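As described in the Methods, two query proteins were run sequentially through the folding procedure within a single session, without resetting any intermediate state between them. The first query and its resulting C-alpha cells are shown here.
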Amino acid sequence: MKKKISEDQMREYRLRRAKRRKNQVKLGMVMLCTLVVLVIAMYCGTALYLQVTKKDDDAVEAMGEAVTYSQEELDRYVSQAVAEAETRAGEEIQAAEEEAYEAILNEIRTDLSQGQTVLEVLRPLYPEDLIVASNGQYHFVPIDRKLRQSQLIQENVNVLESGEIQYMEGDQVISHKGIDVSKHQGKIDWAKVAQDGVEFAFIRVALRGYGTGKLVEDEFFDQNMQGAQAAGIKTGVYIFSQAITEQEVLEEADMVLDKIAPYHLDCPVVFDVEKVAGADGRMNDLTVEERTHLTQLFCQTIEAAGYKPMIYHNTEMGALMIDVGALEDYDKWFASYSDILYYPYDYTVWQYSKSGRVAGINTDVDLNICVDPVWEE
C-alpha cells in the first residue's frame, strides 16, 4: 500500500537528494579529465596531418609547380612533425593530468576534513570495484556485472529525523517496514509493534556459539512467533550459524524445521552467515568454497522441506567470504548501516540499522525494509 508523507518529510527527502549529488560530481570530474586526455590525443593526430600537409602546400606555392620529395626528405618532414606534435601533446596532457590530480586531491582533503571515512572517499573513485575494509586491509574486488544487480535508486531513499528509512516512488512510500528480534529484545508488546507500522518480522530460532560450537534454542522464539502472528505481522525466521561441517549445518536445519512446524510462515527461513566481529569465531577460518557449500546445503534442505530459504550477509561477506554467484538463486537479506546504496548485487531485504526504536520494544532493535513484499499477497 502506498503511503503519503508530510511536507516536512518531503522537504528533508529532497535536501538529502541534493547532498548525494556531491559524489556524482566527483565521479563526473574524473570522467571529464579522461575526456580531456582523449581530445588532446585526437588533436595530436590532426596536428600531425596538418603539419605534413602544410609543408607540402608551402613547397608548391614557393615553386609554382608540382614538387616531388625524396623518401629521405619525406621521412625528415614526418619525423619533425611527429616530434613537434608529441612535445605539444605531452605538455598539454601533463598539464591536464596535474590539474585533475590536484582537483581530486583537494576533493579528498575536503571530504576527509568534513568527517567522511576513507571508504566513503575511495568508493566513488573506483566504480567498477567493490572496496571493503577487512583485517586491517582495503580490498578492491571487481564487480561482476553478469550477476543480478540491485535495482534500488539512491534518489529514492528517504531518511526521516528519527533515522527510519523509507523507499519512495515520487512522493509515495512504497517500502514495507520490518524488524528482526531475538531474546535480546526481552518481552515484546506485539500489538504496539504493529501499531507502529511494522509489517513483517524475522524471529530468531536458535544460535550456535561462535566459540563453543554449542547449538542453543532462542528461549523467546515461541513467545515472539505467537505474539507477532496474533498482531497480524508477517513472520519469517532465522538462525545464527557457526557451523563448520555438513553434519553441523544439517543439525541446524533440522532444529529450524522442528521449531517452525507448528506455525504458518509468511516470510523466508534465513541462514545468517556472517563473520564474528572482534572475536575469533569458529566459522571465520572457513574458505570461501567451504562456507558457500554449507550455505547451499542449508538452503537446499530448507527448500526440500517446502519453505523458501534466504541468506543474510553484509558487504564483507558478499565480497570476500561467500561466492555470491554460486548462491544467486537464493533471495538475500543484506545488512548495511548506512543510507548510501553501495552494494551492487541484488537483495530483497535491507537491514539498515541495529539501533532502531519501535513502540512495544524497550531495547534497540534491528530495522529493515523491503520494496517488494517478502510474503505472498
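Immediately afterward, the second query was submitted; its sequence and C-alpha cells are:
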Amino acid sequence: MPIDLDTVRSDTPASATVAHLNNAGAALPPKVVLDEVIDFLQSEATIGGYEIVARDAERLNRMYGAGARLLNCQSNEIALTTNASEAWWRALTSVPLNPGDRILTGRAAYVSNAFGMLQARRAGVEVIVIDDDESGQIDLESLTATIDERTKLVALTHVPTSSGLVNPAAEVGAIAKSASAYYLLDACQSAGQIPLDVDDLQCDFLSLTGRKWLRAPRGTGMLYVRSSILDDLRPPTFIDGYSADWTGADDYALAEGATRFELFETSFAAKAGLGVAIDYALDLGIEAIEERVTELGARLRTQLETIEGVNVLDRGKQLCGIVTFTVDGHDPVVVKDALIGAGVNVSGGALSAWQVEEGAELTPIVRASPHYYNTNDELDRLVDVLSDLIAA
C-alpha cells in the first residue's frame, strides 16, 4: 500500500514545525517510539532499572523478532549494538584474518570502516580498493577479476553516506560466495529505506543503525551474524557475563547466538524503542517506503538540476533518497547554515569516504535526505532558499 502521508505526518509531531531533510543523519522518531522510550524511563525511575528489565523482558526482546523480520533471518542471529560502526567493527574483528590474507572493499567505504581496514593492513592483511565502474557503483568485473583464494573478506558499503548511490549488494554477495570469502555489508544508510534480505544478499554479516531511516532512538544499532559461521569466528574482542558464561576456573563459553557480540549494560529504554521503530516501519512496508523515498529523492534532484550554479553529484545505476550537491561560489557549510536558518534541516561539509586512502581531497558537499513523511512543499522550500541565496 502507498504511504498515507497525513497519517505518518500526524505520527511525527515535529514535521509541523521543521522541514527535516536530514534523515541520513538522524530521522525524526514517530510518536509511538518517543512514547515507548519515555514510558520505559519512567518505569525505571518508578520500579528500578534491574526490576523493569526482569519484568518486561518480552518488551525488550521485541527488537530481536522485529530485526529478524526486517532482514529475513532468525532472531538469534541478531545482536544489539549502540550504532552501525560498533556493529561493523565487532564483525571485522571476529573474522579470522592473518598476515597475507586479503580484504576487498569499494570506494564508498565509510571512514570508520576504512580505519578498521587500515588497522588490518598494519597487521599484514592486504587491503584492495576496487574502483567504481563508469556508472559510479563498485565495478563488478574488477571485483570478479581480483577476488581469489587469498581473499578472506569482502566488505561493502551498500549506500554511501555522501551519495545517493545504491551499490549492487546482492551481486557482490554472489561473487564473495563464489570465492568462499566472508561478506560484511554495511547497511547503515539502507536499512529502513531499502528492503534487505540476508539470504538474497548472501551476506555473512550486516551492520545497521537505528537513528537514520528506521527512525529509532539514537544509540541503537544491530549486527546480523549468520549462525552457520559463528563457530568459525574469533571470539568477540569484548565480552562480559552476558555474552559468555564461566565454565571453569580457567575457561568460559560464549553465548550460543549472536548475543555473544552484546554487553550487559545498554540503554534499555532505547532498546525498547528500537523494536517499536522497526515494527512501525514494517507495518508501513519497506517496499512502500523505498518507493516514496526514491520518488522524493528523484524529484529533488530534478529540481536542483534546473538551478544555475547547483551541481548534483549523485551517480550510480540505482539511486536512493540521499541527494548531494554543491553550489558554485558558496561554502557547503554556509549553504547548510542558510537552509537550517530557514527551517530546512540538511547536512553539509566534507563527508568522508575511502578516497582519503589515495590522498585525494574530498569535495565538501551539501546532503539532503528526504524521508517518506516529507512533502513536495518541503522540497520546494529547500529549492527556494537556494535560489534566493544564489540570487543574493
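The two ends are 43 Å apart (CA to CA). We note this only descriptively and draw no conclusion about the first query from it.
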